[in-house]
Amino acid sequence: MDRSSTVPASGVVPERRSVVRLGVAGALVGGAYRRGDVEVDRESGRVVAVGVGGTGAGMAVPGLVDLQVNGFAGVDFLTADVGGYAHAGAALARTGVLAYQPTLITSRAGQTVAAIETAAKARAAPGGARILGVHLEGPFLSPARPGTHPAGLLRAPDTELIGRLLAAGPVTQVTLAPELPGALEVVSACVQAGVLVSCGHSDATAAEAHAAFDRGARSVTHLFDAMRPFTHRDPGIAGAALTRDDVFVGVIADPGHLAPEAVRLAFQAARDRVVLVTDVLAAGGCLDGHYRLGDVEFDVSGGTARRADGTLVGTTITLLDAVRGACAAGVPPEAALNAATRTPAALFPQAGLGLLRPGDRADVLVLDDALTLRTVLREAREL
């Protein structure tokens, strides 16, 4: 018996009025489902015990981690102020996302620098979902695969520019197209700085993708979307990533972005390396209408975001929607939940994310059997 993850050997939990049980039937602990209730201490903000006997319903899971959030609740992170971050962070936390990367699409260098500086200030403010750091999705993207990024603002990879952007604040991830001239040098500069490099918005062949992965790129941004299509003689970046054990793959489990077979394929090929992301926009958590993403204008109708020319623009889903979307595609719930908790947390090993063991910070969600959110706890306190 692993006493580190159960009640004390005596079978008696010391009486503390601040210790409460969550009333669940089981919990996701260490990536696996464990039967039994969970106890948390409101005073210390920590998990006390898991696998506790008793009756309950539903499941406790660690707080969700979303590594690609363009905005939420009417806030676009490219133009947000600190107050906007506070508003969006509180709204994200209510959906179960307790840690995230604000993601900045391609824009003018000065605007990007200002946005990074604002994110740094917001990161230091208490409350809401925790800001891990900034994800720069651009500007070093392929003009052949721009998606919704403004094509006129795309830039050739430039070590001087990336140095300026990294110096502006807490950049934790950079997405680039590895086939572009100078991209491998930027990969090396980011890796040396401790920044996660992700390949995306790319027309790279498999060989070009492997070259970036060999340099230290460790991730792919929204697998299959805005990249060279996979074919049996030209597997491209998707084929390269799925066949390597050292590369994580971001997946948007939303029917508008990926067919169910594509979602299942990703999990079957890279189960412990799939990171569910939303790529959610400022329109997330809002009504249909007209919105902006940096310099890009788009409309949301029926929850689907498109530019006037029909180009798909991000999503309006929550990360728990993505978990349910993966399950609807045939992915087991345990695997889908891990892809929104434990796996993204593995990219931030010092952050204490994605954990639900005695002594861990009690950032915990309680879900019912349909994976509907019942309760959000941040440091054992209900939001």
From TrEMBL:
<dbReference type="InterPro" id="IPR032466">
    <property type="entry name" value="Metal_Hydrolase"/>
</dbReference>
<dbReference type="GO" id="GO:0008448">
    <property type="term" value="F:N-acetylglucosamine-6-phosphate deacetylase activity"/>
</dbReference>
<feature type="domain" description="Amidohydrolase-related">
    <location>
        <begin position="59"/>
        <end position="369"/>
    </location>
</feature>
<keyword id="KW-0119">Carbohydrate metabolism</keyword>
<keyword id="KW-0479">Metal-binding</keyword>
<dbReference type="Pfam" id="PF01979">
    <property type="entry name" value="Amidohydro_1"/>
</dbReference>
<dbReference type="InterPro" id="IPR011059">
    <property type="entry name" value="Metal-dep_hydrolase_composite"/>
</dbReference>
<protein>
    <submittedName>
        <fullName>N-acetylglucosamine-6-phosphate deacetylase</fullName>
        <ecNumber>3.5.1.25</ecNumber>
    </submittedName>
</protein>
<comment type="similarity">
    <text>Belongs to the metallo-dependent hydrolases superfamily. NagA family.</text>
</comment>
<dbReference type="InterPro" id="IPR003764">
    <property type="entry name" value="GlcNAc_6-P_deAcase"/>
</dbReference>
<keyword id="KW-0378">Hydrolase</keyword>
<dbReference type="InterPro" id="IPR006680">
    <property type="entry name" value="Amidohydro-rel"/>
</dbReference>
